[in-house]
Design the sequence.
């Protein structure tokens, strides 16, 4: 076993109970939490605080892949290099990233891996975009080679963007989910996916009869759920492409498990909402269809949720159902302006790319567009709020915050090394900043994959920008 000590500026977000745990441990001297910054929490009532350690160190064990400790560089070196003689430790490796920023790995809560092949497709809004581009590309995934090659390419792109976990749509071919899990398992990334359920209003080649689609999901659960770092999500595409029978069977399957996820889309586009009302004239609205079929709950993530009624927000709150906000997608498809503070007032909101309707896999670029969407509604999105949301907040929304999301000891060592001066423009602009918050805001507005210097997965370096 090798102990790795990463020296860097450290930034992450702590809950109140994380903070209590830290202050009662031996390392209280390292706690530099910013008490006066208020963030909107993803979980109602669970307060969160930024913690920034300018001259810090993160200590990890590459055998377990877990974080051992973090704190000031001086304290960590004293504890793990200078004084401790522990015979079980074969060696200590020091990584010098002083002047770089280390953050927890970014988490993307809604993204379609097969759509990496049709990202940036011109000219349509949701329903035409699906028919003219998306379904055509997804049909290619009947070929296992396409699925494997694309899964591999996509996962490497995630790492190059600093994303270490994601909730992902595959296609309706079970082998597309298998291919994704196989590659993710090899990389040891914590990922969630499932075969997409569709049995109407889509090309015949992509439709799978209700019972067969559910059997496919059941098999994938048996093979992959909680194997290593993989999790399965029951994945009906949306109310339009599933018969009531399929949605109901999906709800029954969801109810039969305690830890399996469910993901689908909700209220993204006005034509979509009108189509759902036409298909389900006797339901109170779009969300009510999912509610009736048993699809809502704490492990459910609904992408978009832009156009909702008050009663629907209330039902999201009552069921613990989470919303995934996808800024670049909403702008690209002209879907509408998502009200972040309003939705957070009702339920957990995570932030996601939604590639291929989204136009970037970078969670930093995604935050930059999220900021502009809030500006158009006279809302603000601070850098701390945004960076909290793409790390600990997204982990909380996915109920993975006991494993990932910040640097608390015993969490999994998924993190990114960020070069805040990666480009000539960033370097020039950073030189003008006076506060750390200002630097973070510049990073959020101008940063993208170019600032990601290294991505570490469970203690193992899996991407470096200087190695192509
Ligand atoms: N609604 C149903 N399917 C999709 C999809 O693939 N992308 C987006 N953005 N919305 C959807
Ligand atoms: Zn989507």
Sequence:
């Amino acid at each position: 076993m090798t102990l790795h000590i990463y020296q860097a500026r450290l930034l992450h977000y702590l809950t109140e109970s994380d903070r209590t745990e830290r202050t009662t441990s031996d390392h209280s001297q390292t706690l530099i939490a910013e008490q006066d910054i208020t963030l909107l929490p993803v979980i109602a009532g669970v307060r969160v605080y930024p913690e920034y350690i300018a001259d810090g160190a993160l200590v990890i064990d590459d055998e377990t892949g877990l974080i051992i400790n973090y704190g000031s560089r001086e304290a960590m070196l004293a504890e793990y290099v200078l004084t401790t003689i522990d015979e079980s430790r074969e060696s200590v490796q020091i990584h010098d990233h002083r002047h770089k920023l280390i953050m927890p790995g970014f988490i993307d809560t809604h993204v379609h891996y097969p759509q990496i092949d049709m990202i940036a497709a011109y000219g349509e809004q949701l329903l035409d975009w699906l028919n003219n581009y998306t379904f055509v590309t997804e049909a290619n995934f009947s070929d296992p080679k396409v699925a494997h090659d694309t899964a591999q390419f996509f996962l490497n792109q995630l790492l190059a963007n600093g994303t270490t976990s994601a909730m992902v749509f595959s296609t309706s071919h079970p082998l597309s989910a298998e291919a994704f899990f196989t590659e993710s398992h090899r990389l040891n990334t914590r990922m969630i996916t499932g075969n997409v359920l569709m049995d109407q209003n889509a090309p015949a080649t992509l439709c799978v009869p209700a019972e067969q689609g559910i059997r496919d999901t059941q098999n994938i659960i048996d093979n992959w759920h909680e194997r290593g770092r993989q999790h399965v999500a029951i994945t009906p595409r949306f109310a339009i492409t599933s018969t009531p029978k399929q949605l109901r069977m999906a709800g029954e399957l969801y109810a039969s498990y305690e830890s399996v996820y469910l993901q689908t889309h909700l209220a993204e586009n006005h034509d979509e909402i009108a189509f759902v009302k036409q298909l389900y004239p006797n339901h109170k609205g779009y969300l009510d269809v999912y509610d009736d079929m048993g699809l809502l709950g704490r492990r459910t993530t609904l992408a978009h949720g832009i156009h909702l009624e008050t009663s629907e927000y209330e039902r999201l709150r009552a069921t613990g159902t989470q919303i995934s906000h996808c800024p670049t997608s909403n702008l690209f498809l002209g879907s509408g302006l998502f009200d972040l503070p309003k939705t957070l007032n009702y339920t957990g909101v995570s932030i996601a790319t939604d590639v291929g309707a989204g136009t970037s896999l970078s969670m930093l670029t995604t935050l930059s567009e999220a900021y502009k969407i809030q500006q158009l509604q006279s809302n603000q999105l601070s850098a701390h709020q945004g960076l909290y949301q793409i790390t600990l907040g997204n982990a909380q929304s996915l109920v993975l915050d006991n494993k990932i999301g910040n640097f608390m000891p015993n969490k999994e060592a998924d993190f990114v090394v960020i070069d805040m001066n990666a480009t000539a423009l960033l370097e020039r602009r950073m030189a003008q900043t006076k506060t750390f918050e200002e630097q973070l805001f510049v990073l959020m507005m101008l940063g993208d994959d170019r600032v990601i210097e290294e991505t570490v997965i469970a203690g193992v370096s899996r991407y470096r920008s200087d190695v192509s």
Summary: The first helix runs from residue 16 to 24. The chain has two domains: 2-105+406-464, 106-397. The domain at 106-397 is CATH 3.20.20.140 (TIM Barrel). The two ends are 28 Å apart (CA to CA).
